[in-house]
Amino acid sequence: MVATGLAAGCFSAHGDAEGGDAGGRAPDARSVDGAPVDSEVDGGTCDLTESCNGIDDDCDGTIDEGLPESCRICGMECASAEYCLDGACTDAVATSVDAQVNNTCVVLSDGRVACWGDNWNGEINGVPGSDARTPTLAPVEDALAVGVGRFSTCALLAGGAAVCWGNLSDCDSPDGGGGPAQVMDLPPATSLVSGRYHCATSGDGDAYCWGCFSGGAAGIDFGLHSTPLRIEVDEPVVQVSVGIADSCVTVEAGDAYCWGWGPTFGLDSRELFDVPVRAPFDGPVDRLSVGAGHTCVITTDQYVRCVGDNAYGQLGTGGPDATMLRRVPLAASAQRIAAGPFHTCAVLEGVVYCWGLNSYGQCGLVAEEEVVPPQEVVGLPEPATDVAVGVYHSCALTESGRVYCWGFGSRALGSADVYRSGVPVLALGPEP
Prior knowledge:
Elements: E1 3-4, E2 30-32, E3 35-37, E4 62-63, E5 83-85, E6 88-90, E7 94-100, E8 103-108, E9 113-117, E10 132-137, E11 143-148, E12 152-157, E13 162-166, E14 181-182, E15 189-194, E16 197-202, E17 207-213, E18 223-230, E19 237-242, E20 247-251, E21 256-261, E22 272-278, E23 285-290, E24 294-299, E25 304-308, E26 322-327, E27 334-339, E28 343-348, E29 351-357, E30 370-376, E31 384-389, E32 393-398, E33 403-408, E34 420-428
Antiparallel strand pairs: 1-4, 2-3, 5-6, 7-8, 8-9, 9-10, 11-12, 12-13, 13-14, 15-16, 16-17, 17-18, 19-20, 20-21, 21-22, 23-24, 24-25, 25-26, 27-28, 28-29, 29-30, 31-32, 32-33, 33-34
């Protein structure tokens, strides 16, 4: 890979530019982590041959240029159907995608999990430290689903167990890290989702949640709960969605039960509900996604409808906040829905549409500050099967298992080079 170096002249890989470093080495000497590297210099000029060592051997201002494009190991090229993932070539593609704030994770076709984004709490790999600009493997295998939480990440494994990594012990000062650790006392799970905290559904139709709870959390005390607690809903639960603070479940009959800030899910009362209450949604709900102050659903007629805060157009229509579900001006063919804090995206027959705040291109347009009504995200080379959104970025999973992202974040897009884009960029998978 070609990396940009310092200005022309000979440099230490980790030291200062011309004039020597603190150890007083001559300007034409090079070092790696303070140890000199043998390299003959005639008359003060550098070698003309660049080698794979992370050093600017020919002193032209770039490192390792002209060497084979490889899996971050010079001389090793991936096959055409493969791509470089965390230092090794692979042909495993994504089967699901999830996002939260500045992070994204995918489950791969071989059961591994790859993540990119912030790693302050070890939410990428369980070890707090350097953030991941490109997809990095998490320390789990045999995963079926992944949920990206506010301070930690969880995966559902084959067999129904769940494991989590990141900050697992402190909600007040979320800067620790650990894991992966199995979620104890959780019945065998069939699905898993994450937001402010984590939730899973069991085969008998119950929903259980654990993690860092805020006010109005289904009768659960504020703070950390490591042991899953059953959500008190009398009907079999089909789906759970966890937002920044509010949450909802859908049941077999198509009704939704929600808890948290009432206006988020269409209750006129401006208060916190700490037990699940039936949301006043018109028509049976097929899919549901809770954002931060608004909720969007796909009803069984495949229309998208939204309710709640509309400060940035995240309901897909102009006008004030909505206290009743408001139909989004899209065709009756919605398949997936993802509500973020300030914008929303949906998949309709393989096409991604987004609306709401677009200050960093997270709705897939370059210039507009807000996008209302919904606009197609242009630039995806193939049909999408799912979509996930963070605060300022969005990602789509395509039919081939590739993941494309757009928006903003020094780590959110999964690219080592692109930090902001109003059009999709390839985050994971082989070049098409």
